[in-house]
């Protein structure tokens, strides 16, 4: 808004609100190319008109139907000009763009959503805006899923072809695009989806930006509220914006938290040294000393505010790190994601390391869910018996169990039928000598793919082109010399006023379904690597945190984004109605019919008594995917709050483990699929007793002899 006012614009108004007429002035409309926005502009002329004339600027090119609507409704003398800006995206950072569309995740991956094809067309137009704004007509490479088998495996291919058609159409209508005086060769656009790396969204990251967004309530990645001490010693709350106007944030956001704290301490002590009045003994040696000294510096308000923000963030993150035992959790996660321990050995004690964390009440249910997901992905599916025992230890909620089940929509295998089944080749990272911290060993797979492309070692079968690159797959030929075009030489939203380097091509990356902060950091690391000499710009439909990704997975199959919860289609059990203390009132007789005789059956049906066994097996629904408390205490141990659906037995006939009637196809299918985590409605209650402790070699089992038996817990019987 400040930049607009600097251009001497006197008034900025919302199109959807009532506005005052200024019939002597022209109005500039910056609108999205939708029917609703264009109709508002047309109504402004019919009801007045409100302005002397209009200048229409669309964020992207409207389709032919909307253009005809504009031309037929607005006279040429009234419409002064019309332009397409191609700015249908948000420039979040120097190398990061986003469409700010979390709903795209559900439209692309939910099996119940019907907006898949339309959403791909919308995303293709937005990607066209990104390419045009950067002055690029790139070669397009897309992810081709060779091994995985899931419903949306063709997503990258379909999106890549749509983007290619959009670029071809724009180039055909604009022969001068891209500018021929660019010093860069032709760029590359990588189109991948979230299945390229399913480890990254669940891992704990300990770089400053990623860790803060994972553990702290930072709104939309940049708005943070913190407590600070005022000049009079009182505590107050203040809001800080974490963006690239804060030089401290830019310098430390991709550093490991330990390195970040060291740099904050170093910079703060350097400030004390540069300013007179501070003795050598006044230097801060830890974060608490730094916080106390900041309260005594009222004369340095600007510096005080910046250091206070990052001091609070660092302190809060380290407090949660110690309180939730994230060091042990992260070690377990890294062993699963990389496939090896810190010393490069094969991890043989994953269960022994994981079960104490699953039993520990200090570890949050969210972290237990993330740990289970990483372990199952590492094992490429586990036995049903092992699955139920792990869930008995973890005690995750039913909604979190639904999130785990929905991993199958991304090609993740949850269960396997036999322990002796032939194992598929699983993705494993090679140990790297550049890793400094044991709890930060995992390298996002997207970074490895981009580096392999730069080094010419990429698998062309797994990442093919939409068009023949004509013998120049890496874009290293055809470098043109000439005057520098600012639009084509750099992205228009960053490095303002800086000289443009003649790098060897630009790489634009798009991740459909959300991009993680670790992947954003990887783009910066490649761009800042002088050996690679590549400029990487990365973006997605939205930026995700582990909490947000798990929350989205919970409802991915059931209801989708921003829709009302699906209510179970059943009648409330009659036993919950109180017994009538007096006879019900007699209803008036219908006209023309004789009155009801006294000995006729009552109009109200009294609840029928049930046996003790029937009452023990009955649970009342407690909302979508949940259950309430049992009405009577059964002889078996009662299910505790938070147990997954795999730990319940004795469901009422006709209900699935997710709490919905079996008449609904999606839930019935989930209960019967070999990849789901639900158990059939007729599962006996004896299964619950098996969850309390692992069965020994000499104990009897309720499973059939043909069912594979697990030895996962034989060496860990004390849990």
From TrEMBL:
Residues 461-485, 564-719 are annotated as: Disordered. Residues 568-580, 601-621, 653-668, 693-707 have a biased composition (Low complexity). This is Sec1p. It comes from Rhizophagus irregularis (strain DAOM 197198w) (Glomus intraradices). Belongs to the STXBP/unc-18/SEC1 family. One of its GO terms (biological process) is vesicle-mediated transport. Transmembrane segments: none annotated. Pfam families: Sec1 (PF00995). Residues 581-598 have a biased composition (Pro residues).
């Amino acid at each position: 808004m400040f930049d607009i006012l600097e251009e001497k614009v006197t008034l900025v108004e919302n199109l959807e609100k009532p506005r005052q007429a200024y019939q002597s002035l022209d109005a500039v409309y910056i609108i999205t190319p939708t029917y609703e926005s264009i109709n508002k502009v047309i109504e402004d002329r019919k009801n007045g008109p409100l302005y002397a004339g209009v200048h229409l600027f669309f964020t992207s090119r409207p389709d032919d139907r909307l253009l005809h609507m504009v031309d037929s409704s607005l006279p040429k003398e009234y419409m002064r000009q019309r332009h397409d800006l191609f700015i249908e995206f948000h420039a979040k950072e120097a190398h990061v763009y986003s469409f700010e569309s979390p709903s795209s995740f559900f439209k692309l991956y939910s099996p119940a959503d019907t907006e898949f094809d339309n959403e791909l067309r919308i995303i293709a137009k937005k990607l066209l805006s990104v390419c045009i704004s950067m002055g690029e007509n790139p070669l397009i490479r897309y992810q081709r899923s060779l091994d995985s088998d899931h419903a949306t495996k063709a997503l990258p291919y379909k999106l890549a072809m749509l983007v290619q058609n959009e670029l071809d159409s724009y180039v055909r209508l604009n022969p001068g695009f891209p500018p021929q005086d660019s010093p860069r060769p032709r760029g590359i656009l990588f189109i991948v989806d979230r299945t390229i790396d399913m480890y990254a969204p669940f891992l704990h990251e300990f770089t400053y930006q990623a860790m803060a967004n994972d553990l702290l309530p930072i709104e939309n990645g940049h708005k943070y509220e913190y407590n600070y001490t005022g000049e009079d010693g009182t505590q107050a709350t203040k809001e800080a914006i974490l963006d690239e106007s804060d030089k401290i944030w830019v310098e430390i956001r991709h550093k490991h938290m330990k390195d970040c704290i060291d740099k904050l301490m170093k910079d703060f002590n350097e400030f004390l040294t540069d300013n007179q009045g501070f003795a050598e003994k006044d230097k801060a040696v830890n974060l608490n000393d730094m916080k106390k000294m900041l309260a005594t510096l009222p004369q340095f308000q600007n510096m005080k505010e910046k250091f206070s923000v990052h001091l609070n963030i660092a302190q809060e993150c380290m407090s949660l790190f110690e309180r939730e035992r994230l060091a042990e959790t992260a070690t377990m996660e890294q062993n699963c994601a990389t496939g090896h321990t810190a010393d490069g050995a094969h991890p043989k004690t994953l269960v022994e390391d994981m079960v104490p964390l699953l039993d520990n009440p200090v570890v949050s249910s969210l972290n237990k869910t993330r740990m289970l997901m990483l372990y199952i992905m590492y094992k490429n599916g586990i036995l049903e018996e092992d699955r139920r025992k792990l869930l008995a230890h973890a005690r995750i909620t039913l909604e979190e169990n639904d999130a785990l089940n929905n991993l199958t929509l991304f090609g993740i295998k949850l269960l396997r039928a036999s322990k002796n089944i032939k194992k598929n080749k699983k993705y494993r990272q090679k140990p790297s000598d550049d890793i400094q911290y044991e709890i930060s060993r995992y390298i996002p797979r997207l970074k490895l793919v981009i580096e392999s492309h730069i080094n010419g070692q990429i698998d062309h079968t797994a990442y093919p082109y939409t068009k023949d690159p004509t013998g120049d797959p890496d874009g290293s030929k055809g470098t043109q010399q000439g005057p520098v075009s600012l639009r084509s030489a750099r992205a228009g939203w960053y490095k303002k006023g800086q000289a443009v380097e003649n790098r060897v091509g630009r790489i634009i990356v798009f991740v459909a379904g959300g991009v993680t902060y670790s992947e954003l950091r990887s783009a910066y690391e490649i761009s800042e690597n002088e050996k690679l000499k590549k400029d990487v710009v990365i973006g997605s439909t939205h930026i995700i945190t582990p909490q947000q990704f798990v929350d989205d997975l919970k409802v991915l199959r059931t209801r989708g984004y921003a829709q009302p919860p699906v209510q179970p289609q059943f009648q409330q059990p009659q036993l919950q109605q109180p017994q009538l203390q007096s006879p019900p009132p007699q209803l008036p007789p219908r006209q023309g019919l004789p009155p009801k005789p006294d000995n006729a059956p009552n109009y109200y049906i009294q609840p029928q008594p049930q046996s003790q066994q029937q009452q023990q097996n009955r649970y009342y629904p407690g909302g979508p995917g949940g259950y309430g408390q049992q009405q009577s205490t059964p002889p078996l141990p009662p299910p505790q709050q938070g147990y997954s659906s795999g730990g319940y037995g004795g469901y009422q006939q006709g209900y699935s483990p997710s709490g919905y009637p079996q008449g609904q196809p999606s839930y019935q299918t989930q209960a019967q699929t070999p990849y789901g985590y639900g158990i059939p409605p007729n599962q006996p209650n004896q299964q619950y007793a098996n969850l309390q402790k692992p069965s020994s070699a000499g104990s009897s089992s309720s499973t059939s002899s043909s069912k594979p038996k697990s030895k996962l817990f034989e060496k860990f019987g004390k849990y």
